[in-house]
Amino acid sequence: MPLVAYGHAGQPLLMLPTAAADYLEYERFHLVDAIRPHIESGWIRAYSINSVNRHSLLNEQMPPHLKAELLTRFDRYIVDEVLPAIRRDSGQPDAKPLTTGASLGAFLAANAYFKHPDQFRGVIAMSGSYDVRSYLKDFYDDNVYFNNPLDYLPNLNDDYHLPLLRKADSIFIMSGQGSYEAPERSRHLSDILNSKGIPHTLDLWGPDVNHDWPWWRRMLPYTLDKLV
Fold this sequence. Notes:
CATH architecture: 3-Layer(aba) Sandwich
Distance between the termini: 31 Å
Strand content: 15-25%
Shape: globular
CATH superfamily: Alpha/Beta hydrolase fold, catalytic domain
Number of domains: 1
Order of helices and strands: EEHHHEHEHEHHHEHEH
Number of strands: 7
CATH class: Alpha Beta
Number of helices: 10
Structural class: alpha/beta
Strand order of the largest sheet: 1-3-2-4-5-6-7
Low-confidence stretches: none
Helix content: 40-55%
CATH topology: Rossmann fold
Largest sheet: 7 strands, mixed
Oligomer: single chain
Mean pLDDT: 97
């Protein structure tokens, strides 16, 4: 699958598209322009990839077990192909990208980070829903469990991943509280993270902040500024 890069140096930022969109979505909707100062200053080198949403979660013709299997394959694609490509391109063999995404992209970004805190620095998740079961018509198997943060995070008690997550300093769960937003989903994820002792920022914007691009174009640079 294609990958596009923006910038010449800096902290890698992996952008996961919304809904059934493609790797150029964040360019078309000017989110790349919104973080242009971070890119041109050499602080951020952004990367964007396709997702499998149109073939998996959003494909009504796809049997639920195959939807779930595609999520696992996508996870392996990120770890086995995208991460090595980013590290080669950036000249940083040990680089740990931040992940980010809006809407369904927030789920993909969060899932990638929470499953692989040894490979990623953190996540900026905007206006997300973190429970994939609503797409799967009551089907459930290991592929669902291990790609559903609201399921696997509460049960995380190992001596490797959980300590890494408890050292995190770059987890941002963001949502508006206006039209088509669902801030309770971000609160739910935050409650789970709190119960596991995982430090994070829950950042709920006001009732005028709806589920749309103008706000994501403000949220992402606002949060990146906190990490500079």
